[in-house]
Amino acid sequence: MFPVLLLLLSTAFTCQASSQKVLVLLDDFKTRSTHSLYFNDLISRGYEISFKSASDKKLQLKDWDEWLYDKIVLFAPTATGLGANSDHTTLLEFIDAGKDVLVAVDSSASELMRSLAADIGFDLDARGASVTDHVDYVKFAMADHTLIASEEFMQSSAILGNFTDSAPILFKGAAATMSPESTLGISILGAPETAFSHLPGKPVTDNPLVANGYASLVAAIQARSGARIVLAGSVDMFSNAYFTTAGFETASGKRFDKAGNRAFCDEVTKWAFHERGVLRVTNVHHSHAGEQEQPDWYRVSDDLEFGLDIFELVGGVWQPFKADDVQVEFVMLDPYIRTKLQHNEQGHFYTAFKVPDVYGVYKFVINYHRAGYTPLELAKTVSVRPFRHNEFERFLVAAYPYYMSVFSTMAAFFVFGFAFLYHK
After folding, report:
1. pLDDT at residue number 167
2. Of 184, 71, 198, the residue nearest 125 (C-alpha)
3. C-beta separation of 26 from 74 below 8 A
């Protein structure tokens, strides 16, 4: 119970953007000006940003056991080393510590970036391969079939908030795949049905990686440590040029007034940095039906009530969480009872049930995993005892036939004895 509370408290502190330090690692410091709108959006939300070169030999993420930064934005697709190290082990330790990372690459991603993506849970397409669309590419002054406009973003308020903009996302870069067996991976942005990934200028001699359904343009993983990692296959999608693009047309004739990159990248970053999709549990309580006192044990067949409060972080404010798929299990080795929790629209979830007719040590278990939200894993132990010798019912309804047989036998014996003794 205590580790769960500590995790929830640490998550609540993580959500305070005003005290967060963000390290931005770059290949080229020109990116600082070409992507200034994105960085300004972060600053406007209260983040303290430090810009450093990914190849800076003096780069330091950790001072003894203390991490110097809370978040990392990695816009260094061609980096061959991070700081004085030629690998990314420190960055993986950063993630294991529950810290958030946003990584953007492109088709020229180095082996270091590919190895990092693989260790996180993503597989990038072959080096030099770009997502291409000969049907629905964006038409500018020069025809570039690797510049596509995608509207295949995930419909999730937990990740994209109120992003209802009909404007597509401009994308130019590489696609990544995740294992279909992954329970932690989330595809945030897919590609149009006509898109595929291959080496530009090379003949397609085998089946290319079809982006739609098999790969993602922007994907994310919420690690078991609590960290959130977002991998975008394009650095350009965060650039000022894509943020301010207006009045463009695709090869299929679709016309758009603007690109939705700025709003999209803003919402994705909010989720990645734990500004959204964060749940908090308070006031876990169980008691006998109609009572308030929380006992340490129950008796078999008792009626009990269970409840808790769940709140969601929305815009920096904790608001009541509303969902119809939260369940509680009453477990002794295996779940004896699994039931949905009702809620009162104010964040309070509750249910009532009868204790199983098997005594032992049980646990109330909440194991709630929903895409885009921090997982809720809660366990509370109680004991269930049998009836004492003086708690059994004196007369059982089911035993009435046996009671009648005893009294009828006694009455028959009395009649027989009276007849035998006094009748000649």
Report:
1. 85
2. 198
3. no
Map residue 40 onto helix, strand or coil: helix
Residue 219 contacts residue 231 (beta carbons within 8 Å): yes
**Structural tokens at position 237:** 């999608």
Q: Position of tokens 């991490």?
A: 67
Q: What CATH number is attached to the domain comprising 71?
A: 3.40.50
Residues 6+ apart with CB under 8 A from 166: 151, 260
Q: What is the pTM of this model?
A: 0.83
CA 1, CA 269: separation in Å to the nearest integer?
A: 31
CA distance 193 to 176: 16
Selected residue with higher pLDDT from 324 and 206: 324
Residue 394 within any structural domain of the chain: no
**Does 402 map to a domain?**
no
User: Which region holds residue 181: left if phi is over 0, alpha if psi is between -120 and 50, else beta?
Assistant: alpha
> In terms of domains, do 267 and 302 share one?
no
Q: Has residue 319 been placed in a domain? A: yes
Angle between helices 261-272 and 36-44 (to 10 degrees): 50
For 123-180, the pLDDT digits (tens) are 998 888 889 888 888 887 566 788 999 888 888 888 988 886 668 899 999 999 887 7
Helix or strand or coil: residue 71?
strand
Give the residue numbers spanning the domain of 150: 2-272
DSSP summary character for residue 397: G
What average pLDDT score do residues 317-337 get? 92
CATH of the domain at 381: 2.60.40.1930
| CA gap 20, 13 in Å, rounded | 10
| Burial of residue 36, with CB atoms counted within 10 A of its CB: 0-12 exposed, 13-18 middle, 19 or more buried | middle
Residue 96 pLDDT: 93
The reply to whether 152 and 264 lie within a common domain is: yes
Domains identified in the chain, total number: 2
Is residue 293 situated within a structural domain? yes
Do residues 139 and 17 share a domain? yes
